[in-house]
Design brief:
75 residues; 12% strand; alpha+beta; 53% helix
């Protein structure tokens, strides 16, 4: 049972959450901050995390998922 516990701890250590700043998200999407906040107000932006300091962050996985959901096949 103790060996299994060590395995679980390693899984948790390897599961990192990457948080992006709004500036990083805007840069990657090539949109202005005002466009991002407009999308956010309209609930069209990727889900954000509010830190205790009040700053917003976007999980890398959330941005990737959001982008995948907005892909459009070129015709």
């Amino acid at each position: 049972m103790r060996e299994n516990q060590g395995s679980e701890n390693r899984k948790q250590v390897n599961r990192k959450v990457y948080l992006l700043t709004i500036e990083q998200v805007c840069s990657e999407l090539q949109v202005s901050r005002s466009t991002f906040y407009d999308w956010r107000q309209k609930r069209r932006a990727p889900q954000c995390v509010r830190l205790p300091s009040g700053a917003l962050r976007v999980r890398r996985a959330e941005l990737d998922s959001w982008l995948a959901g907005h892909e459009e096949v070129a015709r």
